[in-house]
Structures are given as structure tokens and as C-alpha cells.
Amino acid sequence: MNLTLLGAPGAGKGTQANVLAIHYKIPHISTGDIFRRHLREETPLGQKAQEYMVQGKLVPDDITEAMVDDRIALSDAALGFVLDGFPRNLNQGKALDGMLAARGLFLDGVIHIAAPYDLLVERLVGRRICPACGATYHIRFDPPQAAGICNVCGTNLVQRPDDRLETVETRLSVYREETAPLIAFYQVRGILLEIDGTRSVEDVSQSIIQQLGARHG
Ligand code: ADP
Ligand code: ADP
Ligand code: ZN
């Protein structure tokens, strides 16, 4: 099963990608997570990506596409994967088609998770992440057991610098202008699943798995 999640920052892509990865036993490939790891490890790629990420802009396509191509070439992706945060514009959408075609693959489904602007902002500014293990929390919607501490590994949680209100607004407008056109791009192919992202994590997961099951048996 080769899947990708489409949706604005804060829609719940990462949260649902985790659930789908476990359910279908396929790797969760998040371009944002891969970039953040490079940033942390101060690799040349991380240094290049940082200037775009702090501003809430897209990292250039050539860098991002090469990174995804390398990642889907790894053996754990041979039986499928769930992409999260890629593609993010039409160029990347076309590049993904090329990468998959070169391996005799195609996308089985594109899951569009929709949520209104105010809810996206609330989810983003309240998001906290574990810098050590990558676990995601929300100060109101999914608080950790002990305030500010990761349930999984005990590390102090942090706010992503790009989750501060100033950058959130830029990211949401980048989504509207550059990423949203992908919805029509996939809709005409009949592989788009429309999901209401305003409901609970469990309800959203259930409706994704149900719609995928209805399509693929
Ligand atoms: P994205 O990857 O699309 O940016 P995330 O999955 O990181 O989004 O979710 C953004 C924030 O909203 C996180 O803090 C997460 O805990 C929270 N969240 C995700 N899905 C839901 C949901 N269905 N209901 C309430 N909060 C959610
Ligand atoms: P969110 O889902 O909350 O927007 P991500 O973790 O997916 O956040 O992305 C964080 C940042 O990483 C983006 O704002 C962008 O700078 C960079 N990034 C992630 N994926 C891509 C991509 N496919 N193309 C270009 N830049 C990307
Ligand atoms: Zn942790």
C-alpha cells in the first residue's frame, strides 16, 4: 500500500501517518521529520534546509525530491509506505509520479485531511514535540502524563520554532497557494480520499481505514 497524506499544517497528518504505519505495517516517511533530524545533526542538508524551515517556506524541490527518492529506495519501503508532507506542490507531485514509475509503483491512495483555519492554528500553536524521540503532544488535546515531559522517553518537550504564531500564518498561506492545488491533481485520477479532520484522532483514523478498505478490500 503506497499512500500519501495531504493537508494543511496542523491537520493531523503526522498523527494519522503513525496510526496507518502500524495498521498496514509500512514505514511512515515524514519529510519534515527527516529535515528536522538533519538540522539536529547539523548535516550540510540540514544547514541548507534550516533557512527555509525557520521562515515557514518550502525547502527547494531538488533537495527534497532527492531525499525522498533515497528514502523510498530503502528496503523497508519495498512493500509500501505512508508519505507525510510530500508532495507539497505540483512539481513534487510530478516528481513523485516519476520516482514511483521508475520502480513500477503507483500511489494507491491520497488522503486529504481537512480542517478549518482557526482549528489548524490552535493545533499548531499548542503542539509540543519530544526532541529526542519525535513523539507529538498537544497542550490541550493530547497532553503528556507529566506536564512538559515525554511519556515515552522522559525528555523535556519543546515547541517547534515554526509553530509560533508568526510562522504559522506564513505556513498556512504557503499551503493554500502551493500545496492545495494537489487536491485537484489527485482528484481527477480518482485516488483522493476526503477526510473530515475536525473529529477525534480515533474517529479520523477509523474513517481513513474504512475508506481505504472499501477501495482496496
Ligand atoms: P500535521 O502533521 O498535519 O502538521 P499533527 O499530526 O502534528 O499535524 O497534529 C497537529 C497537532 O494537533 C498535534 O499537537 C496533535 O497532537 C494534534 N492533533 C492531531 N490530530 C488531532 C485530532 N484529531 N484532534 C485533536 N488534536 C489533534
Ligand atoms: P507541518 O505538517 O506541520 O507543516 P512538516 O513537519 O511537514 O510540518 O514540515 C516542516 C517544514 O519542513 C516545512 O515548513 C518546510 O519548510 C519543510 N518541508 C517539509 N516537507 C517539505 C516538502 N515536501 N517540500 C519542501 N519543504 C518541506
Ligand atoms: Zn520522547
Task: Please describe what this structure looks like.
The protein is α/β, with parallel strands linked by helices and 217 residues long. The protein has a single domain, classed as P-loop containing nucleotide triphosphate hydrolases (Rossmann fold, 3-Layer(aba) Sandwich). The protein has nine helices and seven strands. A five-stranded parallel beta sheet has the order 2-3-1-4-7, sandwiched between helices. Strands 5-6 form a two-stranded antiparallel ribbon. β5 and β6 form a beta hairpin. α2 crosses α3, α4 packs parallel to α5 and α6 packs across α7. The longest helix is centred in the C-terminal third of the chain and has 16 residues. The model has no long low-confidence stretch (mean pLDDT 97).
Descriptive tags:
single chain; 217 residues; alpha/beta; Rossmann fold; 9 helices; 7 strands; 49% helix; globular; binds adenosine-5'-diphosphate; binds zinc ion
**What is CATH's topology name?**
Rossmann fold
Count of beta strands: 7
Helix tally? Answer: 9
Q: What oligomeric state do these chains adopt? A: single chain
- State the fourth-level CATH superfamily: P-loop containing nucleotide triphosphate hydrolases
Unreliable sequence segments: none
The rough form would be described as globular
The run of helices and strands is EHEHHHEHEHEEHHEH
Round the Cα radius of gyration to an integer and report it: 17 Å
Mean pLDDT figure = 97
Q: What's the architecture in CATH terms? A: 3-Layer(aba) Sandwich
Strand order of the largest sheet: 2-3-1-4-7
User: How many structural domains?
Assistant: 1
